[in-house]
């Protein structure tokens, strides 16, 4: 076993290499037939009619809110337990992010807190399937329906996530965005995918994704084609190089999930021995287990980081998901005092352990032994 043990290690093999080389030799590198095939395969995996490849999950969220065209100044309720990009996309559209508290067992939004944050300016709810655990339930859906709120899903962690009936994360709201960043459960080096319930909304995003341009139909043999630009769009497309990598990874993702589940089970067991726990999915659902977030009985963030440092000195690399949004300098103004006590309490005593299918039994055993020895 080689130390230090990285927090993440992409699972890239000869099939991925061959796919990328095939595209390199094809002469068509940007958005083209490989991307279209990946879109079809990803849509089929989720059980939706269509999907749209984009340059990142952030780009996908940007497209969703651009296509929705919510008036500036409208509020969107979201979680503080997420990466800053979730909130950036709202600010970029002139929308007002409002943070609701979380369920500390699962990391998802707490519906009672959501209700307290509701105002006559609220237009939407943006949920994050934190760590790959399903963040949508009947109470949340009923709340959004009763108040006529648009539900958007940030599925950066949640490609494999399913509910009790096997319904995929990303299919509950009006639209959703997925991530293929290098540390995600499948990677395309970079990139993402968006889906939408309304085909017209997805077509609006398709237009905005590539500079608002339209072309005549193409049979694949045409050279010059006159084009037009009918809207002020963006440059947010996926490339065929990325899509080739992503297609192979998508074909492997179900085979990787049992390993993720097994590693999480070992962590759960060792954490219980020191009085800790993992953040867990709702009962009966299937988590993608993108993250193994440990919660330990320590009094504050300083004590937690001292424990993390002891672990890291033994060669185990850790991470933190996440420094809450309202703890960040750019967003301290959007929450304060005791408005988000459950999130604050969780953030003070949590950190993320290595979790990826390439972890060997020896490596997992070493992480577990260090967790106990440095407690």
Key structural traits:
single chain, 375 residues, alpha/beta, Aspartate Aminotransferase, domain 2, Aspartate Aminotransferase, domain 1, 2 domains, seven-stranded mixed sheet, three-stranded antiparallel sheet, 12 strands, 13% strand, globular
Structure, described:
This protein is of the alpha/beta class. The chain folds into two domains: 236 residues, 3-Layer(aba) Sandwich (Aspartate Aminotransferase, domain 2), CATH 3.40.640; 118 residues, Aspartate Aminotransferase, domain 1, CATH 3.90.1150.10. Helices cover 38% and strands 13% of the residues. The strands form three sheets. A seven-stranded mixed sheet has the order 1-7-6-5-4-2-3, with helices on both faces. β2, α4 and β3 form a beta-alpha-beta unit. α1 packs antiparallel against α8, α3 runs parallel beside α4 and α3 packs across α7. The longest helix is centred in the C-terminal third of the chain and has 34 residues. The radius of gyration is 21 Å and the shape is globular.
Q: Brief description of this entry?
A:
Helix 2 packs parallel to helix 8.
Taken together, the total number of domains comes to 2
Relative strand content: 5-15%
Given as residue ranges, the uncertain stretches (5+ residues, pLDDT < 50) are none
Kindly report the CATH topology of the largest domain: Aspartate Aminotransferase, domain 2
Oligomeric grouping of the chains? single chain
Give the strand tally.
12
> Count of DSSP helices?
11
Overall residue-averaged pLDDT value = 96
Order of helix and strand elements from N to C terminus: HHEHEHEHEHEEEHEEHEEHHEH
CATH top level label of the largest domain = Alpha Beta
Reported CATH architecture of the largest domain: 3-Layer(aba) Sandwich
By secondary-structure content and strand pairing, the structural class works out as alpha/beta
Q: What shape does the CA trace take?
A: globular
Share of residues in helices: 25-40%
């Amino acid at each position: 076993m080689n130390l230090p043990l990285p927090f993440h290690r992409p699972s890239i093999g000869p099939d991925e290499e061959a796919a990328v080389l095939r595209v390199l030799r094809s002469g068509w590198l940007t958005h083209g037939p490989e991307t279209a095939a990946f879109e079809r395969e990803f849509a089929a995996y989720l059980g939706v009619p269509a999907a749209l490849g984009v340059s990142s999950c952030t780009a996908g969220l940007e497209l969703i809110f651009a296509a929705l065209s919510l008036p500036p100044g409208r509020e969107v309720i979201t979680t503080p337990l997420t990466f800053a990009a979730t909130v950036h996309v709202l600010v970029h559209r002139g929308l007002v992010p409002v943070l609701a508290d979380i369920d500390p067992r699962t990391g998802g939004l707490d519906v009672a807190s959501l209700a307290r944050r509701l105002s006559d300016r609220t237009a939407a709810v943006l949920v994050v399937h934190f760590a790959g655990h399903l963040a949508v339930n009947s109470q949340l859906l009923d709340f959004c329906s009763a108040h006529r709120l648009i539900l958007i899903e940030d599925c950066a962690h949640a490609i494999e996530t399913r509910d009790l009936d096997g319904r995929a994360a990303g299919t509950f709201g009006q639209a959703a965005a997925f991530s293929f960043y290098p540390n995600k459960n499948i990677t395309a080096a970079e990139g993402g995918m968006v889906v939408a319930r309304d085909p017209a909304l997805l077509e609006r995003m398709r237009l905005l994704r590539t500079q608002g341009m339209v072309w005549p139909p193409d049979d694949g043999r045409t050279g010059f084609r006159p084009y037009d630009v009918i809207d002020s769009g963006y440059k947010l497309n996926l490339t065929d190089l990325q899509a080739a990598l992503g297609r192979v990874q998508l074909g492997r993702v179900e085979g990787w999930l049992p390993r993720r589940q097994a590693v999480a089970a070992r962590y759960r067991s060792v954490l219980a021995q020191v009085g800790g726990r993992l953040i867990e999915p709702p009962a009966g659902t299937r988590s993608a287990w993108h993250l193994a977030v440990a919660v330990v009985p320590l009094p504050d963030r300083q004590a937690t980081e001292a424990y993390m440092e002891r672990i890291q000195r033994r060669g185990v690399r850790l991470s933190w998901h996440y420094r809450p949004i309202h703890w960040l300098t750019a967003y301290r103004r959007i929450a304060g005092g005791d408005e988000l006590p459950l999130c604050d309490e969780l953030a003070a005593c949590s950190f993320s352990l290595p979790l990826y299918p390439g972890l060997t039994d020896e490596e997992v055993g070493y992480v577990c032994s260090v967790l106990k020895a440095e407690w």
